[in-house]
Each structure stands twice: as C-alpha cells, then as structure tokens.
Amino acid sequence: QVRLVESGGGLVQAGGSLRLSCAASGSIFRINAAGWYRQAPGNQRELVAAIASGGNLNYADSVKGRFTISRDNAGNTVYLQMNSLKPEDTAVYYCNAEALTYGSSHWRDYWGQGTQVTVSS
Fold first, then answer.
1. pLDDT confidence of residue 75
2. CA 12, CA 52: separation in Å to the nearest integer?
3. Among the residues of 1-121, which ranges form H helices?
C-alpha cells in the first residue's frame, strides 16, 4: 500500500556530509508525521529526527545543530541533511512515516528498508 525507499547513504569521512532521501509511493491519501531513525550494531533503533505535518521538528540531542530534516511541498519525500558527521553516526538509517491510504480510516506506520551510513575516522 505504501512503500518508502531510502537513498543517499554511503561511506564518508568524519566531518563530511550526506543527504538522505526517503520517497513515499503507493495509494497515499496523506502523510502525517515522518522521521528518520537509526540503528547501530548492538543498539536499539533510535529516533534521529522527525517532522510533523504542521512543520514541527524534533531532533535527538546528539544530532542537534548538525542534522536537518525537511520534506517537499507534496509531503511525500523526506530528506535528512547530515553535516559534520562523526564516527558515532555510523548506523543503518530508516525512514518512517505515518500515513493514511485511500479507502482506509486508520493511520498506519510504515518503514523503509534502511540505508547504511558509515563514517570513518
């Protein structure tokens, strides 16, 4: 029904930048909140940044001032600009969206397949 596809991950040196994209497709009526999570080996998945439909932003303390989340006007693509990357940012980054599909009255959470971000020291 809803497919989220992430792109933009890769290998970068400490201090570098990457921009992640998450494109949503399918029978989407509306996307409410969307966000980026990450999971490093041996760690739980954690929230990195989130953006609500009204534009409210929420960031993990560890990325404040370095990462910026945004979405396009249609609201179906979400971006994560990551600057001043650190080795501890290394993780698989997942896109998440709360969406309502045509013909449904229930909001559901959807996840992408993840994209690897590796920051070398």
1. 72
2. 29
3. none
Which residue, among 53, 66, 49, has the nearest Cα to 12 in the 3D structure?
Answer: 66
What pLDDT, on a 0 to 100 scale, did the predictor assign at position 48?
A: 98
Confidence (pLDDT) at 44: 97
The phi, psi pair for 55, rounded to 5°, reads: 100, -5
- As a whole number of angstroms, the distance between CA 38 and CA 23 comes to 17
- Residue 121, pLDDT score: 94
How many other β-carbons are positioned within 10 Å of the β-carbon of residue 77? 18
Spatial neighbors of 72 by CB under 8 A, at least 6 apart, are 79
What's the distance, CA 25 to chain centroid? Answer: 15
What are the DSSP E strand ranges found in 1-121? 2-7, 10-13, 18-26, 28-39, 46-51, 57-59, 67-71, 77-82, 91-101, 108-111, 115-120
Average pLDDT across each block of 10 residues of the chain; the chain has 121 residues. List them in order. Answer: 95 98 92 95 96 92 97 88 98 96 93 97 94
How would you class 16 by CB atoms within 10 Å of its CB: exposed for 0-12, middle for 13-18, buried for 19 or more?
Answer: middle
